[in-house]
Fold each of these.
Amino acid sequence: MNLLRDSATIARRNVIRIRRVPDVMAFVVVQPIMFVLLFAYVFGGSIDIPGGNYREFLMAGIFSQTVVFGATFTGAGLAEDMQKGLINRFRSLPMSRSAVVAGRTVSDVVYNALSIIVMSLAGLAVGWRIRGSFLDAVVAFALLLFFAYSFSWVMACIGLLVPTPEVVNNATFVVLFPLTFIANTFVPSDNLPGVLKPIAEWNPVSTLTQAVREGFGNLPVGTPEPTAWPLQNATLYTLVWAAILIVVFAPIATRLYQRAGAR
Amino acid sequence: MTSSPSDTSVSARGLIKTYGEVTALAGLDLDVPGGTVLGLLGPNGAGKTTAVSILTTLVRPDSGSAHVAGVDVMADPRGVRSRIGLSGQYAAVDEHLTATENLEMIGCLYGMPRREARRRGLDLLEQFRLMEASDRPLKTFSGGMRRRIDLAGALVADPPVLFLDEPTTGLDPRSRGELWDAIRERVKGGTTVLLTTQYLEEADQLADEIVVIDHGRSIAKGTAEQLKRRVGGEHLDVHVSGDGAVATTESILAAVATGPLRIHHDDGELSAPVSNGVEALSTVLRELESRQVTIVDIGLRRPTLDDVFMELTGHEAEAEVSS
């Protein structure tokens, strides 16, 4: 299959770059460690979770936030390829029309997997433990990677629409900060005021966090059953969102790629 | 037109492309017989890059038709892509990859097996004397070297037709010469080349035939010799200094010139097309001496493509570029 082969070629190229570009390495390795330490030590002492340990509660939130932010790479990488003229070269080659974006989203799973490994080690160092079964934990990690993969198609569209990688970073932060903070990532959504509560409850980042928290057995003892449907069916709801993101944004990204950089 | 494997020609009929208010191409016709080099010459904004983008399937024209190596560009863009190599004015190589990794990647994307792509890449690096770049990331190398690797990228799959969009713009003379050698090497092997350039010397050096374009349409074509002959005769160049020297010289030259003068006021340099060179030279010398103008330099020369451009468009290639 042309698409698979070409996507693999593009993904291989992107993975080679992980080792060569120091600032990417910093983002992948340093930022997750920083988040774990900051939240564990700065907020960890001040925020109380009834019946639980905030650091354990927190880890699932940091996992979710980091993989969602990791999708920024997809957009920034494509914007850079466009700026450097590589997209035009690719478009002049007899390769699959979807492979450049598909290969990019696949290689970003590798970035995210690296981030998750680093984060897990940092988490273990500050006292986080997986309390559930091995299988549940594996499913939780897989869900993180799959949701991140689906979200990177959204970022791919942004990357192909803006003129420079810097703009991707600015544009995505405006979206990603609310998306990852108006959620149960760092505080229980029950504590949120007014309209923020339902938003958080229906936010797929919340359900991802909820599913991961359940999978790791990190929910505080005696936590009441969530009242909102998405949080009750966190894994299913997250998977449906991921599927929708791919079905909607993959064709848009492919279409944008075909027109990209054409002058 | 039917596609045959031996057809390596490029042709375009009535290509029109507008971007909003801007007309990039206003009905361009092109013909490049197989195995020859066509130089598409024109200032910035003349439509050269748009023409290449259409022929390489990156952009669809508003109207018109084009065939590359016997394949219809609009009906079968993928077929065209497998028969062409494109090297642009910005080296489209991944600067974080080594030369070998770049060429291997491009070869794979042409559908070559990975091992073969790698071997072919190494062959090209050796041929272009770029072996030192083979296993170091490209960002450590000069612009000229990256351009040659970019050109090598266009050659990995040995395509019968090559598009070079301003291949040497911004390069120093030595790098330019090296790139020209590499291109000549390919042409010897029978590759068809469509080359855009704003350097008249480049078209003169490489192209079998030259098409001059301005404002999106072809305004002249022929060999470098034919175009120069079109300007006719010889050129009388005069370099003067002193107050009012340029104005005085201008009036003297105007009397013998057969076409528009070219004047660089700041440098005190003037140039005029003349029909009888020796007679014009002695007339002008006599006049200049009698009016006591200080002559820095004076001489006759054969017309260059710069003169052709001036004659055809009424403006200088260089002047438009800098504006």
Amino acid sequence: MRDVYIVGTGEHPWGKFTDRNFVQVGEVAVAEALKDSGARWSEIQAIMSGILIYGGNAGHLSGQYIEGMFGETGIPVVNVYNACATGSAALRMAYNSIASGETDTAMAVGVDMMPKGFLTAKSDDPKQDRDVLRWRMTGMPNPVYWALECRKRFEKYGDTPEDLADIKVLLSQFGAKNPNARYKKEYTREEVLNSKMVCDPLRLYEICAVSDGAAVVILSADPKKIQAANKPVKIAATTMGSAMYGDPTIRISALSAPAKAEAPMLSESYSASRQAYEKSGIGPEDVDVLELPDNSSWHYLQYLETCGFCGEGEAHKMLREGQTQMGGKVVVNPSGGFSSFGEAIGAQAIWQVVEAADQLRGRAGERQVPDCKVAMAQTYGLMGNSGTTILTV
Amino acid sequence: MEVMDTMEGKIPRLPELFSWTDEGVRIRSAKCHDCGTYFFPEYHAQHRPDCPRENVEKVLLSNKGKLNTYTIQHFMCPPPFKTDGDIAPYGLGLVEFPEGICVAGLIVETDLDALSLGQEMETIDYVMYKDEDGNDVATWAFRAVK
């Protein structure tokens, strides 16, 4: 396997775009990535594309639609879905294609246009799709799952409502300075604590919205492309994990979980991150910037522990001591996180990598983490999907 | 033990998830005698790796368990969830059964503010709405044992 570099990245700003289709949103990110890399479209030898599950046939063939816009070249175009870790899968395939020598330059694309409001079941067959059960029998939107786990943390470790609110405050301060963010208002602890209770103990501002957006990375092992790139970033590892038997987490769409833990919580993310640490020889202690999946304030705390940035039950301590802020042990989500962007299923994992790469390339403006050498992007997808990417300069 | 699929005009919204018995409402599960895992629903098997998967038996979980965790949902869940009227705020929780499996469900007929982890809960039915034929359409739910 040979070294693979990010030679170009692109983003479409995130928001709700009712006047555009996904190809138009994706086009902006692809064009930006091409320009950034200096590569011509016809030099891209493979496209790995995250699909849009709410986009019908076109959404499931997102890569072909985007290829068509820029010009069809006959290369492999593969479309993939792994819930909110979809982009991790696309990136990993592009990486493996290059690392194995199949191609020299490949693109990972993620674009999504999300429906408004809740993401309910997409089929009617409970025997086949257990998502149907939770929507018909128990009335459990996604945040309920996070609240159930969050309650346990409160009881076990002493996390407080103020901790959850402070996470939103921190993320909003970063989001306010990120030109591509959807939400740019800075919040105070009081404002967050006064926002509506959604599912106790999670409040409205402590849960991410759903957005439209796109992100693209161009990867290469071609020495000329790497040399021509404006600050190439090395992919030290990009991995995926699935859940492990005996994981006690109540996983989204499931209505049961084992009572006795025989695997770590969020075992898919535990697995992906440990694979990445092993492959790269880099550990949490080396990471300067961590982009973690802050679908809610609970995730922020839990992921610090799941990925080994502190011991079990210690995340609130890191938070309270400022260890996740500028100047702390690891700067968490200097992008502003999903809290400031919202999630766009097919795009968010690649977006996290683009934001992490921006820090390594010194492009983060007022949010720039000084002397950033190692960045990590961690994803979380329902039904046991996760990806970890570690980047270095 | 007598096991019934309907009860006095009440029918389940979806079949094979719970039963009425003369020993209370019981969650339907399946146990794999090879790997020891209990499944819910009974038709969604999740075996231990390398299990031969040959000896799976349908079982009913105990009627009582302990509250593993809970939340109070302050907004009505959108369709296809359906109840006669807006029931928010409503309780949702995980109950840990002695068999070694936690099952999620609505928490009803309980003072939600008084809930505490570890307390004893029992499985009951909960009528969500009346259908066109006049049946009371029900789901399983939990309440605190008084």
Amino acid sequence: MNSANEYTLRTQLERSNAVRSNIKKLYIYVVLVLIVAVFSVVKLGQVEFFGRGHFLSPDSIINLLRSAVPILTLSGAFTLLMISGYIDLSVGSAMSLSAVVFSWLILNGVSFLPAFLVTLVMGISLGFLNGLLVMKLRITPVIATLVTLNLFKGIALLIVPHGLSAIKGSATKLMPAWINDYARLDVLLGLPWAFYVAILVIVVLVIVQRKTILGKYAAAVGGNRTSAELSGINAVKLVWLLYIIVGFFAALAGMARASYMSLGDPLSGDGMELDCIIAVLLGGTAFSGGEGSVAKTIVGALIIVCLTTGLMTVIPAFWQTMAKGSVLIAAVVLNHLLVREKVKA
Amino acid sequence: METRLERKKMIGGRMSNESFITLFMIGVLVVLFGVSCAIVPRFYLPQNMINLLTNNWYIIMLGIGVTFLLITGNFDMSVGGVIAMTGVLSVWFCQDATASQNALAVGLGLPYGVAIALALLCAMGIGAINAFFIARLKVPSIIITLGTMMIARGVAQIVAQGAQRNTSLPDVFGVLGGLTIPGMSIKLSVLVMAILVVAAFVFEKKTVAGRRTYLIGANSVAARLSGVNVRRHLTSLFIISSLLAGITGILLSSEFKAGGSSRAMGYEFDALVISLLGGVSIAGGFGSVLGMFVGAVILSVVTSAATGLLLSPDWQFTIKGVVTFIAILAQRFALDKRKG
Amino acid sequence: MELTDNVLEIRDLVKDFPSVRAVNRVSFDIKRNTVHCLVGENGAGKSTLIKILTGASARSSGSILLNGEAYTPHSTRDAKQHGISTLFQELNVVDQLTVEENLTLGMEDTTLGFLRKTDKINTMVNVMNSLEPSITPRQLVSTLSVAKKQIVEIAKAVATESDIIIMDEPTAAISESEIKRLFAIIKSLREKNVTVIYISHRLDEIFELGDYVTVMRDGKHIDTRPVSEIKDRSELVKMMIGKTVFEQYTPKEGECKDAILQVRNLSNHKLRDISFEVHEGEIIGFYGLVGAGKTELARAIYGVDPYEGEILFRGKKLPPFPDKVIAAGIALVPEERRSQGLFTILTIRGNVPVMNMRKISHNGFINAGQERKVTLDYIDKLRISTSSTEKEASKLSGGNQQKVVLAKCLFADADLLMLDEPTRGIDVGAKSEIYGIIRQLSKEGKSIMIFSSELPEVVNICDTIYLLYDGRMKATLRNGCDIDSEKILHIVTGGNVTSGDRGE
């Protein structure tokens, strides 16, 4: 009798786990579709008022995708880091700093490719610094990267001459017009290079997460560091490498933004860490690491971009912060409901 | 039977690590101050010294709550947003309710006392949200408090429509922030800060509730098994932290006779930095309000010396970052050395 | 390489700890491709021996020969590279990965970092399926039961050509049918050229499984024999207990007083229908093996774990919150001293008064003088050896740490003390001091519940002994000169209870 009870209990548990895992698999797409649908309907009534066209019109979609480039570029690598159980709050500042350095180089006559490469190297060193602080000097990840957040931001502000809000052309020097070729020039289907680079990044990172040793080890370290290390994985080097990768893509994202805006704004990356966290949480990655999916983070990132762009045209600008804060809390709640530790069968 | 002397010896013994780190940071402060006096002109003037101690009063007020939470192993990043929110709300609540052309000049027309009380209540509400998610649902504090930071600032931005509210205020509004102690140039706000720091110090060292903070930080499982209601205590701390931020917001808005939605940007980081400079460890169970105060003074010595050396204010972020890392590593090094 | 008959030869192995010699000149051989059981009471030195074999701990002197060559592992990984894998009680699988990914973790075949599907995976999966066909390689490990996770670990060890697999109480947390399956697998390992070192408290398992058995007692090697040469469990039990004369237990004088705690039909995830009473001034022992449900029982009463049933303290229902339970007059010395009992980074003074801050405070303010005084009092009373009240708890020896935890609970002024493994990991001297304290408390009219997996402990000091097995109460014994330790071991290792044992 007892074992029969246990059996029914177990099957019930299994069933509820199965239901939950199905919800977990699908909900994010439902959310995305719902948001797009809501904005399409809401905006239908406002077409004349704003004169910008339908939410689903090709123009709107292209605009939306163009503004999504930075987060699409960055959030994949961010996911890998979170899967390994670590966090980098400095990504926004690393982006700003990259934007500033990139535009400073270009303003000073460096051509595209060298400037591009130098900035990438700088991004790598920012990631290296974070990895050093967290993995080698063992400073709590949140504190270390919170401090580097302000450090990078400070350096970005230092590079921009005092009294100016951004690096751009002046009377003596002109920012070359080609700076926005990378993120604005129509290459294919109305979308620029930066967008296709972002797509490439996503594809590469999805493959890295699913098919390579790096993705697997990240999950192993995030899931059970002891057994990962017993199996011969060097967790310190691995996570350090992930920090470097995040730094690299933060630089790439920063340059996309600089090219898009034709200037290097030292605040342009502000809040990117929160966007990334929301995207990752919506994508169902666990707080404590071990599981997660780059592909789903990308869907989460699209949700944020839709929300931000959609809300921008529907509600006044000063509602934005509130909205984003609420979305973050909602993402936490959703994540809590869906990812909390599975009931032991 | 033991003699009195032996018993006395038992009580003495080595200084605690916490006092050691506080003394260590006081030593660092003295050295930094000496160096600054030597190289920065007019740094040693009494007025400058007073400024060093009092200029950062609002950060120190925040630092109290942030320090306690850090001792329990939690972050509170929402304090800056709460300052902006309570400031704007206190203005809005007591602005004249009669119609005006300007939407930002119309408020609820409540008496000042009621306005303050309501604004503080809203601040505590943010603390309660933090506590709910962190103490009950066990969500990492950093993420939730970053969320409530935006919600609080969001409220400020909505009410102030992204700008600030500063018209049609009753005269009483500016009194609190403008008051100075008779005969001295010290503001009421600074006095409040001083009283709160002393109170927090007494709370931390002398009360049962203060002791519980350390117990939770040292080992929250053992604390629970020893009869500490961990959830309730964390909830109180989060609410207190938000309340302190609320009081700061009220004082600041009164001083400026305005509630601005972008006030106190980044203050949460400064509060965290001074706690870390003061030796609070995120590993939990370690740190003190006194250390935090020392950390605050160190920060103002460093930044003001830097300004005195004609560095542009843009350097402040970089300086803060570098100083914090040096402090964390130096403290760890000093503790390791001490262990032998 | 010519293989010797003995896969492992242990010679004069010694491990000294500051206050105790845990392994005392132990020598024995382990034959190739056998199941070699290691038995002994808690504290007999088994786990220390295993720690030395797995590289988790370094020996003080002596030598180990692995396949005839000197063997000195520096870490668990090092041991693994030498072909010795260990199945710890805390399983080392990554829940979030699939079975296949776990099997190959750390040994993947890759091209430019890309995971390659090679024969290695198939070989490993085949090994695993030859052990347990029902596990599919694409399954997430988190969906497996504890027993199947163990099988995944065993499969990994076998597939990586480990010569020796050490299993530390692998059956402690798995069900009967799973145990059968596991045994079949262990038996089949012999054909795969694997030697198994098997540690268990359940003696029946040794007869079912073992080729050889080594008995240890008080850090010494008692005997190594083929299992077939051992008549029955009672012979084994005798070897384990030896001629240890238990300290004389003196029965309680006078009548039993009122019941202070009544537990009725307590059940939860681990416990099944447990009922008993504790009387004033009584010392009660709960004896059972690891995993029998002792800790869970203490936690349920203390309000930490949920339960069904009724717990009455002084006739009133106990609220399920530790702070309220303490206020009602119950204190617990938890099982894990460092992680559950002690605030290691705080001083002794910071630890002692925490369960009853009211007593050293007035209106919420701590009276520092009183705090120091009570700390000194308890340092004297329990003879905690320290230079100062301001010493960090982490710097005390195990026995003194345990005394600090005990002081903490005594200071709570509880009428009922629950002690979960009160003497685990502390030396003999401190042990008998703690027993003295417990007896003294009982004389003062306090009731005490001891949860222990050490038989001498319960037999020494308890008036009534309850035997637990697999979450159930198996028998109740009044202590006295006729207490039969063999029968007790028989019951708690899963033997049948004869009709005479039950009831009072």
Amino acid sequence: MRKEIISNPLFRTIFTRLGLGFVTLFAVSLIIFAAIAVLPGDFAKATLGRAATPETVANFQKSLGLDRPVAERYLKWIGGAVTGDLGLSFSSGSGTPRTVGSIIGPRLKNTLFLAGITALVAIPIALLLGIIAAIRRNSWLDRILNAVTLASISFPEFFVAYVLMLLLAVKLPLFYSLARVTPSMGSIEVLERIALPVLTLSFGIIAHMMRMTRAAIIGLLSHPYIEMAKLKGVPPWRVILRHALPNAWAPIVAVIAFNLAYLIVGVVVVEVVFVYPGIGQAMVDAVRSRDIPVVQGCALIFAASYILLNLLADVIAIATNPRLAHPR
Amino acid sequence: MISNRAASHNRQNGELLLDIRNLTIEAEGSDGWQPIVKDISLHLRRGEVLGIIGESGAGKSTLGLAALGFTRPGCHFSGGSVTFDGRDLLKESEERRRQLRGTRIAYVAQSAAASFNPAHRLIEQTIECVMMRGLASRGAAVQSATDLFAQMQLPDPETIGDRFPHQVSGGQLQRAMTAMAMTCKPDLIVFDEPTTALDVTTQVEVLASIRKIVEEHHTAALYITHDLAVVAQMAHRIMVLRHGELVEHASTQQMLSEPEQTYTRSLWAVRTLEKPEEPPAETILSVSNVDAHYGDFKALDDISIEVPRGRTVAVVGESGSGKSTLARVISGLLPSAAGAVSLNGVRLAPSLKQRSRDQLRRIQMIYQSADTALNPRQTVMDLVGRPLSFHFGLKGRMQERRVAELLDMVELSDRHIVSFPSELSGGQKQRVAIARAIAADPDVFICDEITSALDQLVQEQILKLLLNLQKEMNKTYLFITHDIATVNAIADQVVVMCRGGIVQQGAKRAVMSSPDHPYTKLLLSAVPQMDPGWLDTAIQNGRLAKQNIE
């Protein structure tokens, strides 16, 4: 039994990809650390101001551990990260230590929440519209969908955000214009508050995913097995759903994963516009105050979510390919 | 095909099932709509099989699909009628036509491997039509599909349906596709070259299964093929098409014994081409005890061949027998694991990277598909001129003159010198590929199935060209093919390969007339003959030969 699992190409591929994912993450952590180490700007000098003497700067750096060699600092950091400890923020006071985890944690939760709700709304709509556009390809409906999605991809996000805010919060006061959420709010209220950011984000990613779904399905329609299905008298909607779609999952899942990763790491503009306390804002703030451990922590989480989501997409693509899932 | 008289009487007076009148179909090309089927009329009674033959581009498939009221994208019906069971399909709604497809008119495609959906198990696809229309419960549908699998002589009919298409061989898929077409018990099946992609020995079995099931279910069929000998086994009547027009239409007996049109006779010509066997000569290329591997798989096992100068050695065998691997080993593309390849008595390095430029020049390959072997972005001048500058340093006017000479040798006009491959026909492209090989002035040409992708008439022309070149320049060919007619046409000696080994080799006449290995017998007996009774004999012989091999 165990041997079977090892020799099954599906499982073997998953294990290989997982291993490669870890290797990639490790390499990325090196790059993050090295990039930040060579960046100009020094937390100690910035905090202490111009009047600081070299001795005070040196003392301060020693208290932060910045006097140690780079390699040692990296090992300490990555060693902690493996156990989930991302270290102490530079903003910790002498008696009040603030861990990076305690700064990023709540922000990450908010970001995942916003991303999750957006994904729940956007993915089904995108798939549905993509499939409809493929079934009714070259009809007026398809053309309109194409034009609208092209436009919504082309507009920058902050523009869409402000337009929606103007229309749906100011002119027509349906939603909150700002998405300031606090832990004390009930879930219904939170949902109401984040409605506009969800809408803004959905616009862009629905367009992207829908166009890919349509293209992936239509790309398969010239295959002989599609003609065979038609010659068996299979109705057009069934040709798409049963004969084209199952073969189109790999590219569709890849673009969904890409968009989910974007929802986690790329939404800082939307967070800023709606004043939403997400991880993107946390990172920007940390960069501004040169709080290096927080910046590193954010970057590592971003990298991990990209790698994880793409890994998931690969696994789904392999699992939906009968050649790999059911070897000869 | 049905020997008894009653059946034959039934057919001639049976109910008219399909009646195509003055059908014209147009396709959209670069210069507007062009007719690809021109004013064709045909009729088919219940239980009757009509063969349609012709070369590629004759409009056979288009006509076959028209029987289902279907045109491919970019084509449309522009005149005539397709009356099926009293109703003109061209006047019916698409919805009505769709309901007839699969249930009353079914289709069997050329490449079953491409026409089965890779995402679903065979059984799901086989019973889809029945289930979709609610004609039977799932259990009953699976049961009848299993029965059909058994009738088509598929192995493990109970469980083969649970497999995915990639888990089943090409010949088995082709049979499964015929079973799929039968599930709704259609009145008419269109077979579109159902055995063209198969090896000859597999073809015999699939042909036999198809014929049996069509007879038992009394199904009418349109049988489309380019192979006259195949259609002779299957059809009661035969239509010959060319450029979308009807050339000739007669009963099978008459078509075989006295075809009226020269075109019909010429379709058969390649089968009758036969090179007189030349006496042996000194060895130019020798392969001794060669082994080769793909990873762990042993693709060649102890191969020894002597190729005499100025002669043709044909290497025959089915796909997977190691023919092309042998070509790759000789040319150095695949370094051998053991044994030696010698040219003019000089031992060659296993890998082409270690061979000298002159050694490389002396062995030239010509491939099956000129489409992929010629760079689509180079003109004929570039393609043929490259070996001239590479091996002989010919440049400018000298090179141009030589290219024109070479084109003349392969019977291409020098106006093609500026053409791109896409502007040439399949036969012309293969001529360019041959000219490119001659340009290097090699000792040995390795021809890997170079006529397989071509129409019969073009095949004949290319083979004649090769024979002439051999006569004039005393060139040596190692000719890889799966087609026995091609062997007759070109070879002096024959090497028969099976599963990576040589089962028999020798002078052509000796091998062909007294095949002493059972596999050679099987291979020879599987080649379709014009005699309508051939299939029955072939099945008998084939079974015996197979038992002998195992």
